[in-house]
Design brief:
mainly beta
């Protein structure tokens, strides 16, 4: 009987392991480690990846076996494009790009098919005249969850005011509304959250003010702009005398909610006490919930790697907010620090070096996450990066904590964090956390899942792990309900792996 049970368990593990299969692309000779890339998505049964090598722009087309079927040069993109963003649909994709010609900045859109070919001539979305000394990276893009709304926005400073310009399009790039809105702004203390657009086309973000210590936010305001409005509506949040970390904003289109979450401190120069969460009901134009959740010793004991219990959460950052249909949501926060010679770890630098201060708000773009082979915010040598445990919290529609659990991991690397951290694959009602772990001097990509009731399952190493490939899961992208494309390096080249669940 014992042997029969062992045989059954072995069969279950083998089949579960084989259910996760990896297929690699062949490295291209041009795709050296300094490649700037972005995974666009799956279009007409092809996988499209944008690539930029020394201002030569192309889209590589991979078939279902990750074999390169074509590499299409994007000759319509001018030299030294300032930024490129992407919106992928089932049968086409938009490339939103900006460039400068003399004193004019152009924001353009090009439509390509699943073979990377232009479907029509590029169209002009907006232009801006700038002076010689002005910042030329002023355009950013945000699209709604259902991709029916595309917002091009720019922020220009004039005196002590910021002039917002929002240009809203539908999925056919038909103009719906354009607004210019001046707002007061303190360039030394004010901090922005993400800029988002909901499925109706409403523009939403949060603005906060740093305290004198710079590490803390002492107030916060939810800011919205309805579709056809030419002004902002501002709603202050009640912090009850507490101080916030960075604010993570999320739009829940199913329940018409805006979610704002932040770790909080009860006093300046204190320790992180827990989670501040706000649920704003867009339909009722009122707060659904506003909670301060103290994370006690049970969470701290699971989360901490070393040191005293009161310091256990001080190095955690909220990375992901995952929605549930019932209005509840899950948060994933990761333990992250770094050490550099002569420069101690500074939470302020990590938080507000990107993308939330005015001076660098435009960096909130997926195509910026990989830049010249270096991760964001890691341009200094002699830096060691640490990425450790992940705390997962489940909250109900009223912002109450239902359960929490911890995925244990320990990662570090010198001078680059490209191979560290994690990415989430959502499939089969579970969250799969993909990250590298060092096993016998080799970095192997691992999969641990969290179920709806908070149970953590650790799976065996993924099937078909070939020697020599190093995965960069933090830059992965889920392209279908059961497929994720993960960039990886092989020798001195960038290639891509498809993982099927």
């Amino acid at each position: 009987m014992k042997n029969l049970v062992l045989l059954f368990l072995s069969f279950f593990l083998i089949n579960d392991n084989e259910a996760q299969h990896i297929t690699y692309s062949e490295p291209e000779s041009q795709d050296i480690r300094t490649l700037d890339f972005e995974i666009i998505g799956k279009i007409d049964n092809n996988f499209l990846v944008y690539k930029n090598v020394r201002n030569r722009y192309a889209v590589s087309i991979y078939d279902n076996s990750m074999k390169l079927s074509d590499r299409v040069d994007l000759e319509f993109i001018p030299n030294k494009v300032l930024n490129v963003d992407f919106i992928a649909y089932p049968d086409y994709a938009y490339l939103i790009y900006q460039f400068q010609k003399k004193s004019i900045l152009y924001c353009m859109a090009a439509k390509i098919d699943g073979n990377g070919k232009l479907m029509s001539d590029p169209v002009e979305l907006d232009t801006t005249f700038i002076s010689f000394f002005a910042d030329n990276k002023i355009y950013s893009m945000s699209n709604s969850e259902d991709k029916s709304k595309i917002m091009i926005y720019k922020i220009q400073k004039k005196g002590e005011k910021l002039n917002f310009t929002t240009v809203l399009y539908n999925e056919n790039l038909e103009l719906l509304h354009k607004a210019r809105i001046p707002t007061n702004f303190d360039s030394h203390d004010d901090v922005f959250s993400d800029f988002l657009v909901d499925n109706q086309g409403n523009f939403v973000f949060a603005k906060s003010t740093r305290s004198g210590s710079r590490d803390y936010l002492q107030d916060a305001t939810l800011i919205t702009k309805p579709v056809v409005s030419d002004s902002f509506a501002m709603v202050p949040l009640n912090l009850e005398g507490n101080y916030l970390d960075e604010i993570k904003l999320k739009v829940d289109n199913v329940n018409n909610h805006y979610l704002l979450n932040s770790l909080y401190y009860s006093k300046k120069r204190g320790n992180i006490e827990g989670l501040f969460t706000v649920v704003w009901n867009k339909t009722k134009n009122s707060f659904e919930a506003s909670n301060l959740i103290n994370l006690g010793d049970s969470v701290r004991s699971m989360a901490k790697t070393d040191g005293a219990m009161k310091y256990a959460l001080n190095n955690f950052f909220i990375k992901d907010v995952i929605l549930r249909k019932d209005g509840g949501f899950l948060l994933a926060a990761e333990d992250h620090t770094s050490q550099s010679r002569g420069n101690p770890w500074n939470r302020y630098d990590y938080l507000y070096g990107y993308p939330y201060s005015y001076n660098s708000y435009y960096l909130y773009s997926p195509s910026y996450y990989w830049y010249s082979g270096r991760p964001r915010n890691s341009f200094n040598s002699n830096v060691r990066y640490y990425y450790d445990n992940i705390v997962v919290m489940n909250l109900d529609a009223q912002g109450n904590l239902v359960w929490s659990n911890v995925i244990h991991k320990s990662q570090f690397d010198d001078n680059s964090d490209n191979y560290l951290s994690y990415n989430i694959m959502l499939t089969g009602g579970q969250l799969h956390f993909l990250f590298n772990e060092l096993e016998r001097r080799n970095q192997l990509i691992n999969d641990q899942s969290v179920s709806g009731d908070g149970k953590v399952t650790r799976y065996p190493p993924l099937h078909n792990l070939d020697r020599g490939y190093e995965f960069m899961p933090r830059y992965a992208k889920q392209v279908t309900s059961n497929e994720v494309i993960v960039p990886c390096t092989y020798r001195n080249y960038i290639c891509f792996a498809k993982i099927e669940f």
